[in-house]
Amino acid sequence: MSSDKDSCESNVTSSTRVAYVYNEQYTKLCDQMPKIPLRASMTHSLIAAYGLLPHLQVISPEAASKEDLKLFHSEDFIDCLRRLSDLDDEEKYDDDAESYGLMYDCPAYPGVYDYASAVVGGSIAAAIHLTEGHSQVAVNWAGGWHHAKRSEASGFCYFNDIVIAILILRQKFDRVLYVDLDLHHGDGVEDAFCSTQKVMTVSFHKVASGFFPGTGLIEDIGIGRGRNYTVNVPLKDGLTDEVFLDIFSSVINRVHGAFKPQAVVCQCGADALHGDPHAAFNLTEKAFVRSVEYLREWDFPLLLLGGGGYNFANTARCWASITGSLLHKELPTDIPEHRFFSDFGPGYELTIEPGNQRDLNSEKYIEEIRERIFGDLENVEVEEDGNPR
Ligand SMILES: CC1(C)CN(C2CCCC2)C(=O)N1c1ccccc1/C=C/C(=O)NO
Ligand SMILES: [Zn+2]
Fold first, then answer.
1. In this predicted model, what pLDDT tens digit does every residue of 198-226 receive, in sequence order?
2. A Pfam family name for this chain (predicted)?
3. How many whole angstroms separate alpha carbon 304 and alpha carbon 21?
C-alpha cells in the first residue's frame, strides 16, 4: 500500500516535472562573467529562497566537449578561444583574436572558455532531458547567448548554446520553434537556421538606428528553402506589457497554426524589462510569465533559457517568477530573506513596476507589422508528417 507521499510522488509524471540545470560549481563559474557578476547565484538563490528546489528536477551539467561545440562552431574558432582564454593579459590580442570577434565587446578574458563551454553543457543537458522524455519543460537560466556565430563571438556571446541545443532537439523533433524575447535581435540563432524549414525562429526585439545588432528587420524572412521560416518583430521604445502580449499572442498563434512545431526553445533575455540599464521597454515580469504560459499551453517539449538582463535583481525576479509559474506556485510578493536580500531594495517585492516611458509603438505601427507578418506566414505550410514526437 503506497503512502500518500508515494502516491503524490508517483503522479509527478514527466509531463508535470520541470528540469532545472544547476550545480554549485556551474553557478560559481557563471558568476564570474564580467558583465553579469553574481547574476547566476542571485537567480538561483531567489528560486531556492522561494522553496522551489524540492519541486524541480535538478540536473547537474558537464562542460560541453570540443565535439559538442563542433556541432555548430568551427574548430579554428574553438581553438582560438581556448588558447586566448588560457593566457593572462599581456600577449592576449593577436590579429586572430580580432577576426574571431574576441576583442572589444567580447574580450577573451581568462577562464572565458571554461565558462562558455560550461553553459553550452547546461543547455545540452536540458535538451537531452527533453529528447529522452524525462520532462516536458527544462530550464537553463545561465544559457541563452543568442549572438554567437559559427566563427565569431559577438555581443558578449562566445559559444551559441541555443543553436547547439536546437540541433540536439532536432535529433528527435522534426520541427523546432525558437522564440527570442530578449531586447536584442537573436541574430546568431536566426543566421544558423535562416535557410531551413525545420527550425522557425521568431524574435521580438528593439530596432532603432545604432541599436545593437542592427539586424532583425521585418523584411528579413529567411532565404532559399528557409524563406518565410524566419519571423522578425521589430519594436520601439516604451513597449508595455499589454502591447507586447497582444502582438506576441497573435503572432505566436499564427506561427503555431502554420508551422506546427514539435518542440519549442524560448530565450527569456531580461534586458527588455523596465529598470534595465538599456531603459528601452516598460515591460514587467508579467510579459515574460504570460508569454511562457502561452507557450506552455501547447504542451510540447519546452526549453527555457536566459540571456541578457543587466539589472540583476529584476532579472532574478523575472526568472524566479517564470519558474514559479511553471510549477503552478503562487509566489508571495515579499522577497524572502536570503543571501542577496539587500539587492532587492527599496521595495523588497517580487513584482517589477511598469516603466512610464512614452510608448512609441503606435496602434497603427503594431497593426502594420502584425498584418505584414500574418501575410508572410500564409506562405508557410508544413505537411503533417507521420513521425511520432
Ligand atoms: C557588454 C554588454 C553585454 C553589457 N551591456 C550592458 C552594460 C550596461 C548596460 C547594458 C551591453 O549593452 N552589452 C553589449 C555591448 C555591446 C554589444 C551588445 C551588448 C549586449 C547584448 C545583449 O544583451 N544581447 O542580448
Ligand atoms: Zn539583450
1. 999 999 999 999 999 999 999 999 999 99
2. Hist_deacetyl
3. 10
Residue 372 counted as domain residue: yes
181: domain CATH number is 3.40.800.20
Residue 339 lies in a domain: yes
Q: Rounded to an integer, what distance in angstroms lies between the CA atom of residue 343 and that of residue 353?
A: 16
| Overall domain count for the chain | 1
* Rounded distance between C-alpha atoms, residue 284 and residue 181, angstroms: 13
**Ligand 1 pocket, residue 17 CB under 6 Å:** no
Is residue 278 domain-resident?
Answer: yes
Whether 2 is in a domain gets the answer: no
pTM: 0.95
Q: Residue 155, annotated ligand binder? A: yes
Quote the domain boundaries for residue 31.
15-377
* Ordered strands of the 176-180 beta sheet: 56-59, 18-21, 137-140, 302-305, 263-267, 176-180, 199-206, 230-235
Tens of pLDDT, residues 267-285: 999 999 999 999 999 999 9
pLDDT tens column, 69-103 = 999 999 999 999 999 998 876 556 677 899 999 98
Of the residues 310, 311, 315, 318, which should be mutated to test ligand 1's pocket, given the most ligand atoms within 8 Å of the CB?
310
